[in-house]
Design a protein that fits this description.
Adenine-n6-DNA-methyltransferase TaqI, Chain A, domain 2, 3 domains, 9-stranded mixed β-sheet, 17 helices, 33% helix
Length: 495
Amino acid sequence: MIDWVCRHPSLKYVLEPAFGLGVFSRLLLSRKPEVEITGFDIDPVILNEARNSFKNFPNVNLVLADYLFNDWQNQYDGILCNPPYFKFHDYENKRTLKEIRERLKVNLNGFTNIYTLFLLKSIYQLKDGGRAAYIIPSEFLNSDYGTYVKRYLIDSQSLNHILIFDFKENIFDDALTTSAILLLSKDASTSSVSFTTIESRQQFEQAKIQIKHTGKAPASNIIRAKELNPDIKWRAYYQKQLSTKYKHLIPFKQVARVVRGIATGSNEYFTFNREKVKHFNIPQSYLLPCMTKSKDAHSPFFTKEQFEHLVCTNANVYLFHAGKSPKDPAVWNYIKLGEKKGVHKKFLTSKRTPWYINENRPPSPIWVSVFNRSRVKFIRNEAGIYNLTAFHCVYLKSDLFSNIEADLLFAYLLTNIAREIFSDNRREYGDGLKKFEPNDLNNGLMLDLSRLSREEQEEIKILYHAYRKSVLENKENQAPLEEIENILKGKYLRR
């Protein structure tokens, strides 16, 4: 990052927006002791420590202030930053987003992470010919809120290079996220953007050497800036897309709709096990059978028998469902207990009237896991129970254009083909963690199963039921799934 910024031919004014203890500035001054540095931080203790460290450098001006609300009038030759990582509910997002929107005349999603706001403001403050280097989570490249950020990057014509770290270890100690380095400049060299995937420390060292000597990192892919699409996940520019192996693909939302599970706002309060039901004397009519934790569903088929087993083991499998006007005294006592504990003042509950009414989310025939490390998990909800946010709900559509049977769809979802096609739309976090939001799946692709002949569909369903039988008898046999995959590959694999 320092090498990139130092390639500025006449570097004089440098900004470090999230100064901390001044790691960037220390290294920069060791190379260019004459540069004038401005640093911002909101922590008085850390900034005082930094001032002591830089007391012999009169050309370093440290300011105790929030960078996002200050210094808009100044521009810099170089900017170096490792910004804070706060999700939308961990900072004053409404006030901060309003400031950035009005200053930059840019639209932003309410879920925007604060690190991208630092980035956008720094691009605005970069002089013509100036250079900036940011190390940030790569989350925005493939998230919904990142669409607006990527559009600003394109419009500003400042993005030169993105290095994405695909290390298996976690780069940020306190944030489970992958990282990326963005190299930016406001000059004539931004007609294309280079993407580099760094998968090992050896590759990283090679990239560092090349940037230092040539100003360019070895590129995995180079895209003309005018061809960049902010509306898609930019993973397509730096990772191989597995779906390209198949033909006759359609959006998943054409056959099903994915929505998140029920968000209670306080699972501890709203979920019950058998002992808790007895303790508070809550009638069964005020409880809904519910999957509350992903670990409780360890099989691709969740049956009524498995639900009863969870009940017997005292697992949390009930959801408090008081209704608008409960008549039972025990239910009212439990509602009053929630108010005594302040449950009604929590983020979600405070927005509901009355606060103890949960979302109306009917049981779905299929669940899909939110997080995974190896592969996305689909579960057939044969018990017909509700679910919390540990799983997303998959509801099948049924109309003139899509009338896929649940068994046929689920048979497809169990295959490695379905999982690898969906993986093109995943979100990646540190330590190998992957995540799917509902729209990642809705907008993901799948094989167009309507192209299967009636005979092929019937054969797949027979194989599916054979696999189901083996699982429920605790003698799981993968052979039927392999046969299903062979049928699908014969029909959809590109030759």
